[in-house]
Design the sequence.
């Protein structure tokens, strides 16, 4: 079973600060680094390190060689990544001393890819394959519809939250993943209980309060957040979702997959970075066994 991730590829620029700037405030950074990012690339790396076979669908610009090399180094199949005119997507990430962040994203190539090559690539999927997608690219609804039409399990991270995008994608989703803020935004926008959404399951991540699984006709599942020292929360949700998909791709039941994903996220936030901080399957399993 393969995890196909249709998602963004960014070049992340990290700036370490004593505190996040107030309006009009200028701060000197105490540290700076560049690494692979984007919600799609983060989820691909998280799933691959967690043991899944991963293929990425996305786009880079003329400056994207470093990002492409980073994905390939993680064992992600990049045969279907397009190279388009202009720049690769990028993000400016400001981190305070408590690991909290503020992020600015420029979509770049993520919004310039062509639809037809992606649909053509999806002719290679198997019935049991999984599709991961998020809200940082063009064509989310078209790709989700194509995936569901081919019998794939569709896992959708409704982030960054855009109600128009969520409305368009929801009819083609099996599992909807949101953090608590996004869940509140969705509830306010649609004014319906989660059990009335056209999806099979809803996963809500709540940071230090853990995560929950809600599916029709089955008991809710709650997994607590594992004790950890928080260094950087950037990409924690992507780590959880990628690990969740990886666990499902290897036949795990929802309760097992949720525990695995919670352990992965606990490890990831204890390290600096996004994709570079994603844990590997062996260390996730060790943490699951000791908790």
Sequence:
């Amino acid at each position: 079973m393969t995890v196909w991730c249709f998602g963004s590829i960014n070049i992340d620029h990290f700036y370490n600060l004593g505190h996040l700037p107030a309006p009009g405030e200028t701060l000197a950074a105490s540290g700076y680094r560049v690494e692979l990012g984007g919600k799609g690339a983060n989820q691909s790396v998280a799933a691959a390190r967690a043991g899944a076979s991963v293929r990425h669908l996305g786009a880079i610009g003329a400056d994207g060689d470093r990002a492409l090399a980073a994905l390939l180094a993680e064992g992600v199949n990049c045969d279907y990544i397009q190279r388009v005119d202009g720049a690769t997507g990028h993000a400016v990430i400001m981190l305070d001393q408590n690991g909290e962040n503020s992020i600015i994203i420029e979509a770049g190539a993520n919004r310039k890819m062509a639809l037809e090559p992606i649909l053509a690539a999806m002719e290679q999927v198997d019935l049991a394959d999984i599709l991961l997608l998020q809200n940082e690219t063009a064509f989310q609804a078209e790709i989700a519809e194509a995936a569901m039409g081919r019998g794939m399990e569709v896992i959708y991270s409704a982030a960054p939250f855009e109600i128009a995008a969520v409305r368009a994608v929801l009819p083609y989703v099996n599992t909807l993943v949101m953090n608590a803020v996004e869940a509140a935004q969705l509830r306010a926008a649609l004014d319906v209980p989660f059990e009335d959404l056209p999806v099979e399951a809803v996963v809500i991540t709540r940071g230090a309060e853990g995560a929950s699984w809600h599916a029709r006709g089955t008991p809710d599942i709650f997994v607590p957040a594992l004790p950890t020292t928080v260094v950087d929360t950037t990409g924690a949700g992507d780590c959880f979702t990628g690990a969740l998909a990886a666990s499902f791709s290897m036949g795990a039941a929802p309760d097992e997959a949720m525990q695995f994903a919670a352990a992965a996220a606990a490890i990831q936030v204890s390290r600096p970075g996004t994709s570079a901080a994603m844990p590997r399957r062996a260390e996730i399993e060790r943490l699951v066994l000791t908790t």
Q: What stands out?
A: The chain has a mean pLDDT of 94.
